[in-house]
Design brief:
Elements lengths: L7 H7 L3 H12 L14 E3 L5 E4 L5 E3 L13 H13 L6 H8 L3 H13 L11 E9 L13 E8 L4 E5 L5 H11 L5 E4 L3 H4 L7 E4 L8 E2 L2 E2 L1 H18 L7 H13 L5 H14 L5 H4 L9 H16 L5 H7 L1
Parallel strand pairs: 4-7, 7-8
Antiparallel strand pairs: 1-2, 2-3, 4-5, 5-6, 9-10
The protein binds zinc ion (ZN).
């Protein structure tokens, strides 16, 4: 089946029927062969309605959405696809009110869809290389003179020049927390650019090369040294924050950050590729219920996710990692 599209017209032509959406998703989900989402068995039977499957081994029935972020929701894939298209292409994001109007669903459903799609936009574990700018900012909460930044949430960002970006909500700006993030996300060969915050001056002690600018003295650029790329990402994020979302709770802030990071990193990627990337992620990630999203119960984990967790746990125990926290605290 055709999977390419360049604009909204081509997109709507491609996915104008539910059956076409199902075929597209099936091709992605069973790319490496059929499998049962309940037990992982590779022999499944297809019902003649084209909507259901049955596992030959465990005899359980399922649909193409079972065990994925689309879950057991009654929503047609067509609506999901429109939501994914909008969230991956709108520069400043799309609020649940807007999404509910565009997809013809309730605002609660739209909020739920929005967050589930963001789940598929989660940042990966890869490291950054080359010249990497590092900076922090404060997001969310209300800023007032009395309490200062007390209610705001510190967020740390790092970006390769003209390359990938990563950003995370952090607990606080303590040295060991900042250094942990640097160690986890930046290759030791990188040249790190920062402002004059004292925590970064300790970077060379940990083997990193560092260049700094003094923002307090109105020094923004010193030759190649500046933090303009990460600052422009903060500006973009804050425009989305104020213009589209208005407020982001502490509980869900990281999902919004992931959304902006995804779009930023995919800024030069073709529309149909970005779309496919998200749908691929959705096929791999387990179902996420409303209670799971709001933190009331742990999300269900599907067969593929269980395999990945097993692998990571095995890798972790094999690696004797030194305690970065203790090292940083000694400084
Ligand atoms: Zn099975």
């Amino acid at each position: 089946m055709k999977t390419k599209f360049k604009n909204l017209t081509e997109f709507t032509q491609l996915f104008n029927q539910e059956v076409k959406c199902r075929k597209y998703f099936e091709a992605i989900r069973f790319k490496k062969g059929d499998y049962c989402p309940h037990c992982g068995h590779s022999k499944i039977l297809r019902f003649s309605d084209g909507k259901r499957y049955r596992c030959v081994k465990c005899k359980k029935d399922f649909t193409i959405k079972t065990g994925t972020i689309f879950g057991e929701s009654k929503l047609p894939l067509q609506k999901w696809f429109i939501a994914i298209y909008l969230l991956t292409t709108s520069k400043k994001g799309i609020s649940s009110i807007e999404l509910s109007e565009q997809c013809g669903v309730s605002q609660k459903t739209a909020w739920f869809m929005d967050h589930r799609i963001r789940e598929a936009m989660k940042q990966n574990d890869g490291k950054l290389f080359g010249t990497v700018e590092v900076d922090e900012t404060y997001l969310g909460g209300k800023h007032n003179r009395k309490q200062g930044f007390k209610n705001k949430i510190p967020v740390m960002g790092m970006t390769e020049r003209k390359g990938k970006i990563k950003a995370f909500q952090i607990e606080s700006r303590e040295t060991h927390i900042i250094f942990n993030e640097i160690k986890k996300n930046i290759d030791p060969s990188a040249f790190i650019m920062t402002d004059e915050a004292s925590v970064y001056k300790k970077l060379p002690r940990f083997g990193y090369r560092r260049g700094g600018v003094k923002h307090s003295q109105k020094q923004w650029v010193k030759g190649e040294i500046h933090t303009n790329s990460i600052e422009s990402f903060w500006a973009l994020f804050k425009r989305g924050y104020h213009g589209t979302y208005h407020s982001m709770s502490r509980k869900h802030l990281q999902r919004y950050i992931d959304e902006f990071v995804f779009r930023f990193n995919a800024r030069t990627t073709e529309m149909d590729e970005k779309f496919m990337e998200i749908v691929q992620e959705i096929s791999k990630r387990g179902n996420l219920s409303y209670n799971g999203l709001t933190g009331k119960v742990a999300p269900k984990i599907n067969y593929e996710k269980r395999q990945t967790i097993k692998k990571t746990q095995a890798n972790k125990s094999a690696l004797q990692t030194s305690s970065w926290r203790n090292r940083a605290l000694k400084v």
